[in-house]
Amino acid sequence: MTSRVLVTGSGGYLGRQLVEALAASSERPELIVAMDLREPPSAQRLPGVVYAQGDIRSADLQALMQQHRIDQVVHLAAIVTPPKGSDRQLEYEVDVLGTRRLLEACVASGVTQVVISSSGAAYGYHADNPAWLKESDPVRGNEEFAYAWHKRLVEEMLADYRQRHPALQQTVLRVGTILGERVNNQITALFEKPRILVLRGAASPFVFIWDQDVVGIIQHALRTRQAGIFNVAGDGALGLRELAARMGKPCLVLPPLLLQIGLAIGHKLGLTRYGPEQLRFLRYRPVLDNQRLKTELGYRPRKSSAEVFELWWASRQRAPAAGPEAAP
């Protein structure tokens, strides 16, 4: 692989795995630059990888790209699960304005391809979503969910850049819920409860993608330089009742209105960070059709939704999970 690759968000759960995979590949890029807000410990540094500490919102991005003659960029930097002290403005600055800064730097530096980690959440949580969402369906991320709204705004920005800057090839990955042996996030927290919350009348299907498949898909996109928009999910979907059965757990079935009232009261009293809008998140899960991933990008996920869930659950039984990563 004769290319010079910059990975943003390289210190995150997925970013570290991607950098390791690129460095170990028989088709290793000519140069790998791993950029993150935090400087990695010396024990985590890989030989031959250039580590750059920087903020995605910084004006230094262009200089970094030009200094290393970057040809391809993988953009993973985003706030998926907001940390304590985060607020909506900070998340907007990182997710949306940071991506705009990155695209500006790519165009100014002559980068030929950017691989963007978007999300199935960009489609939004809506009652009229089709049973299986395709890439041709509109992105309607709900404003009440910062992550979904920001992914929608980023996708609208990307569409504009495709028109104005066609020389910058885009590979946009709308990623489903990532699972792996060490994943622990707001989605897996739903499965950790003694009883699995099920909304009456809602199937709430989930599509999962193995973290190693996500890494493989990004490597494949860099190697083939294939542009386009692709849903990233394993084959099949599992509803909450089926997930509960696989874990041997009972279901707690609640009417949607009761849960909505409970969330409203709990949020007002400070007992939960989630408000009544969370009902949409649980009720109208976006279910991703992965045909284009397999036929156009040419990558077939190695694990189905069911297989990667079983992998996660088996590993969770053995040891506590670690390393947050989510793509709701």
UniProtKB/TrEMBL annotation:
Classification via InterPro entries: Epimerase_deHydtase, Lipid_A_modif_metabolic_enz, NAD(P)-bd_dom_sf
NAD-dependent epimerase/dehydratase domain boundaries: 5-233
Gene3D superfamilies: NAD(P)-binding Rossmann-like Domain (3.40.50.720)
Protein name, entry field: SDR family oxidoreductase
Species, as recorded: Paucibacter sediminis
